[in-house]
Amino acid sequence: MIDEEFDRLVDRAWPATGRVPAGSWTLRTAGGVTKRANSVLPLGEREDLEAAVEEAERFYAGHGLPCVFSIGMGATPGLDVLLEARGYRVVDPTLIMTRSLAPAVPDGEPAGPDGEPAAGVTLATAPDRRWLEVWWSVDGRYGEGVEKAARILTGVPAVYASLDGEAVGRGVPQGGWLGVYCMATLPHARGRGHGGRLLNALLSHGREQGADRAYLVVVESNTGARSLYERLGFTVSGRYHYRVR
């Protein structure tokens, strides 16, 4: 696996609505909604690294946004050290966890076609208002940005899973990979196994669509989610973090 593979998978699964190439880097914007969609994707070599960083800083300042870099396994060599020296702080150390879909999904039930139940889970090809409300109430950190977030989510084909209007998840088919995103359960519904049922349904659906591997990203400090993913066979395959000025 090349170093950049996960950087590119995550970028494609969470597509910024604005993308400006800058050498081998991509300057991403989405109205300030989510760090990922409003950060530099810094892949490849840059001849003058400091000048490249300064260019990015001017770009984001011109958009009224903080300058944020996503530092994954394929990040430009030397960039993380330079950013630290320039006063950028580390934010949200994140794990990339993967598992094979070759064996049957543990304790799972096959997911049916779009909209049909699977272990009580419904699947759809677009998020409805309730799906967005559940996800945003758990993960929304950007004021009234849910509509901008919805444009990011629907920027690529995906399947949207929901359970009893209390828990949701998103699966993104990417060739042999299925990317799992937006796993969220309302506080009052936690501890009932909703997350496991949703994840099993998404993985089963991904396998039916031809994926043989799945990945997800989880903030390193989220020990509860990590425990669930580990029980369902996911192991750590990589890491990334953000540098925020």
Automatic annotation (TrEMBL):
GO molecular function (one): acyltransferase activity, transferring groups other than amino-acyl groups
Highest taxon, organism lineage: Bacteria
Gene3D superfamilies (alphabetical): 3.40.630.30
One Pfam family it belongs to: Rv0428c_C
Domain N-acetyltransferase: residue ranges: 96-245
Keyword Acyltransferase part of the UniProt annotation: yes
Keywords for the protein's UniProt record, in alphabetical order: Acyltransferase, Transferase
SUPFAM superfamilies named among the record's database cross-references: Acyl-CoA N-acyltransferases (Nat)
Name of the protein this chain belongs to: N-acetyltransferase domain-containing protein
